[in-house]
Amino acid sequence: MLNIEQINQFYGESHTLWDLDLQVVEGKCTCLMGRNGVGKTTLLQCVMGLLPIRSGEILFEGQSLNRQIAERRAPLGIGYVPQGRQIFPTLTVEENLRIGLPARREKSQQIPEFIFELFPVLKEMLGRRGGDLSGGQQQQLAIGRALVIDPKLLILDEPTEGIQPNIVQEIGDIILRLNRDIGLTVLLVEQKLPFARKVADHFCILDRGRNVSAGAMGDLGDDLIKQYLTV
Ligand SMILES: Nc1ncnc2c1ncn2[C@@H]1O[C@H](COP(=O)(O)OP(=O)(O)OP(=O)(O)O)[C@@H](O)[C@H]1O
């Protein structure tokens, strides 16, 4: 569904992503892993059109995203939950959710009810300002906001970062439900190994901007973990 082919990315003169390939298979959950600073967020931002690539190609459903502006991603069906959530703190929960409505593939003025089935807390807090929510509730809002566009591919950047354990569990269950029951394709960055093992079918490990290993989650063994993931 998403094919990244030989991309190179630079911050100024600093070469950050090197000839990087990644395949995200339709209907599966792929977890991007690696230590801090290896380029995971940079890669997601390239996919979202928020950072330019110098060479290579990013294809979504066979169509090149290289020359498409960032705003085209949502109408094509790519939902994005950025690192740190980036909800609008002074807007209400409802206003945060409504932001995605114009980008829905099937136009609607209504926030889809299934978002409130997944996250009942958002319905209870519709009139609250985003900034007044707890970290876990903000993460649920960020995921809900990405789902408003009715995505085919959901991209999440460290959805469990700084979240209390019971909400981490809930977010894991929701990713599983979206992926396995509803068939949504998922690409996520995740550093917590048990969480990654629970939700993902495939892994891809980055090290210093390169894809150094990829495969089925069941094949992620101790050697790889020791070499590339433990601190
Ligand atoms: N705006 C920027 N300008 C210059 N260098 C940057 C910028 N953002 C990130 N970098 C550098 O690019 C490299 C990759 O960073 P990136 O945030 O993509 O890594 P990451 O794997 O997502 O790390 P983390 O797990 O800490 O979020 C790092 O060396 C980082 O310092």
TrEMBL record:
GO BP annotation list: L-amino acid transport
ABC transporter domain segment(s): 2-231
Coiled-coil residues: none
Pfam family of the protein (one): ABC_tran
This protein's UniProt keywords: Amino-acid transport, ATP-binding, Nucleotide-binding, Transport
SMART domains reported for this sequence: AAA (SM00382)
Organism: Sedimenticola selenatireducens
PROSITE patterns in alphabetical order: ABC_TRANSPORTER_2
Organism domain of life: Bacteria
One Gene Ontology MF term: branched-chain amino acid transmembrane transporter activity
Record CDD domains: ABC_TM1139_LivF_branched
Identification of the protein by name: Urea ABC transporter ATP-binding subunit UrtE
PANTHER family linked: HIGH-AFFINITY BRANCHED-CHAIN AMINO ACID TRANSPORT ATP-BINDING PROTEIN (PTHR43820:SF5), HIGH-AFFINITY BRANCHED-CHAIN AMINO ACID TRANSPORT ATP-BINDING PROTEIN LIVF (PTHR43820)
Family: Belongs to the ABC transporter superfamily.
